Amino acid sequence: MARAQPIITRLGHDPVGLMRAPTFPLPAPSPLLPLPALDALLVAAIDAAAGPRHLRAVHAVILHFGLHHRCFLVAKLLRGLSHYRVPLHPYPLRLFSLVPRPNPFLWTALIHSAVILRPRLPDYHPLRIYSLMRRQWPPSPPLSFTFTALLKSAAADLCLANGLQIHAQSISTGGFDADLFVQNTLISMYVECCDLASAHRVFDGMSIRDAISWTSLTVAYTKNGDVSSAEGLFERSPAKDVVAWTAMVTGYAQNAMPKEALTTFERMREAGVVIDEVALVGAVSAIAQLGAAKHAVWIRDIVDCTGFRQTVVVGSAMVDMFAKCGLIDEARQMFDEMMNRNVYTYSAMIVGLAAHGRAHEAIALFKEMVGKTDVKPNHVTFIGVLTACSHAGMVEVGRYYFHLMKDEYGIVPSPDHYTCMVDLLGRAGLVEEALELVRSMPMEPHGGVWGALLGACRIHVKPDIARIAANHLFELEPDRIGNYMLLSNTYASAGMWDEVSKVRKLMRARGLKKNPSASWTEDKDGSVHEFFAGDGLHPRTHEIKDTLEDLLGKLKLEGYDPVLSSVLYDINDNEKEKLLKGHSEKLALAFGLLTTGAGDTIRIVKNLRICEDCHLVMRLASRAVNREIVVRDNMRFHHFKDGACSCGEFW
Hints:
- It is built from 33 helices and six strands.
- The termini are far apart.
- β5 and β6 form a beta hairpin.
- By secondary structure, it is mainly α.
């Protein structure tokens, strides 16, 4: 077919402007071409158009043939123009106005364009166009797709009031609220507008539901943190698609339910569902929460099989996971093998190195990032750098980076950065200076800032400043038991037993109970075992206690002397030593010695800060049994090897 000429331009009139010869075939003007064939060619030309200029050329041909009144052709043009983000005013509206009697399909196409383009002028708002559609004479009846477009507009505007009006219109103008597409869009609109109750009412009233119906509500509940409701919907759903499976995996992971996330991930694989990137990241995140090294190796093999290993999102998540599972060398290897890295990748690696006490490596990597790449640090990157300084006692280096963050990179310090600085100063014994820093903050300190100060008071026995920090925490976080325990322990370390009693009385009055100390470790098969302080419930309790007694006896022959000050109760020394033996991380260590092979690394995760006595036992045991022992407490990682710890006795 010969290339068509720019017809309107040739006639000396250009209603659309900037008309040029198209670069793709158009139907040449011919009175012999049947109308259906011409329609088909024009539709094909619209579909093949590579941009607004091509669409204008097609419009010129439509005008030449006098087909500008054909609603379906104009509707196709409107959709094409909105796809290329051509502003609604003036061209698309002019194109629409040339049609003498727009039908419902054309009105809906205009509304759809307004939804996509979201014009700022109120005259072009989708609801305004809908109002004009209903007021014309004779009135143009809406279609189901009219309401789906309008509901998407309300969702995009996060305007529940508009959504409610559109819902009412869908009922009053012909029962469109019973249409499956409209119902699904209603659910999405109510979800976006944070009205889950109304979304569920629509769902309950549906006579027919498809995968979108079930999945939309399931995803909404997981994002809202209501995992129980999401789980109920998911299990009842007759057709679980990849989106639903992924929503459950990520929902469990994001709501601190890692075991359930991994169980669902395994079910997803067994069901033959193709694993996508989001589901993988959810599973990786769950393993990071568990800190289970064998699971980390397992998911690495799965990632390698999916082909997502080199994506930045999965790669960054894997770096973070390996670091949190105590496999910092594997994290670094993963980082080094990545072809592309962004600020999240670098931040994950820097934070991981900091948590493992490798402060100098963390700072060296930061310097490499800002000096040899185009990657710019963000607020998380600086949290990693400041944490590294804190864990290594590098006060002056920490001060330097705290000021560099604002002066060089324009990042205003947040309360989280101040938390790092208070922790840095407090750990180094500069508790009074840390308090002054808190008082100088340009914003209100949050619980993390006061918590870091209270923790420093516990380490360095500063009961007066501890009282100041605790009073703020009791207002900000009245139900957080850890704050009361830190204050009580500070008083106990100072021998202020009357004050200890007052704090414990306050705890009882507020109905607060101490969180039990708990530790987790893996056996040789990768199964995770949980231990509580003084635990006697494990099936192998007698063997565990015998192994621990043998170990402690051996350590005493080498000079181990229990750190009785780690017991913050006013009891005799024999009772204190007995309590120390029941600490959860010691039980986990004994179990690890029982169930893993000679030379295997023993990995322990603890929910609280490791005490001085357990730290000493781990350090001495690493040399006595010739094992590396890795403990992840609620602050950092401790790598015990050959009688030394990676923290350098600074934690």
